[in-house]
Amino acid sequence: MLPSFLSSPDDLNSLVDDIKSWAIDLGFADARVVEPDLAQYKDEFNQWLNNQYHAGMDYLANHGDMRFYPEQLHPGTRRVISLRMHYLPQSVATVERLQTKHKAYIARYALGRDYHKLIRKRLTQLAKKIEEKVGDHGYRAFVDSAPILERQIAEQAGMGWIGKNTLLLTPKAGSWFLLGEIFTNLPLPVDKPTESRHCGSCTACLTQCPTDAFVEPWVLDAGKCISYLTIEHKGPIPEELRSKMGNRIFGCDDCQLVCPWTKFAKYTEEDDFQPRHNLDSANLIELFEWDEATFLKNTEGSPIRRTGFENWRRNIAVALGNAPTNQATIQTLQSALPHSSELVKEHILWALKQHDR
Question: What is the active site of this protein (predicted)?
Fold first, then answer.
């Protein structure tokens, strides 16, 4: 039962206005309300799985139809509050760093504190503020932490549109933001959905992907995506893709960097998204020389911890193979051979061959 003071449409509209205001105060850039209709994406998603475009991410095939029916994730769900938060620090170089081949490129969302922790805390604070206003409203907060079609939810909420690069785009901020959701049992008034996608005839993200990971507009083959290869993938990186990875050692931003909408990007004001341990400008050799204890210490509370130490070294070995040839690079690779795992050795030997041409 709703509190008596929420019995009219005006009361509910006023509550939504409060929610959006509180969200801004908590550091979110936008908040929208939607009653999502997600079953329409079921066939398309299952076809994507059948084509094995999810590569080794078997968890994407789990949980049955839960991602298409929000009430299965949170019983009683009537609405979803979709929110976004900017993460790109103004001081951080992007294209320039990709072009500096002896330095590491790390996806810009991963330079600071793990966004899961930051955004989940803010979502919970927002949900508690709603609770203070209306009492127990039945909610559950998510940050990339459950089988949720978050971009489709955001698009239906009018947050923006899904671009050909499969990311959510908005004319107000491009795509340099992260999404979060609050599933709620409140019958809140909903926002108007995005009526059309505004990519037009642009194909920059498709044609300039370093590894040609896009099968067609809106369809990504994760097995070729540098973000997947450097973060989720276990085992050797396919040899035919290594030279295309450049100096990207954790994630990839290329399909954002070439998107015309990113010129409208807004910068973050969150201290937690500022770079840690010089990761926005660190030399590849410096990072390759980290031992496991240093890796664990310097990635504490960071999304980079997800890839693990062995894959971290694997990724950097590939990047060193793509770096300019000089004695320091060759000596670093050779010195690492005796005490590296078989997986890392394979990539070191490949890297050394690149400098012996």
Answer: 144
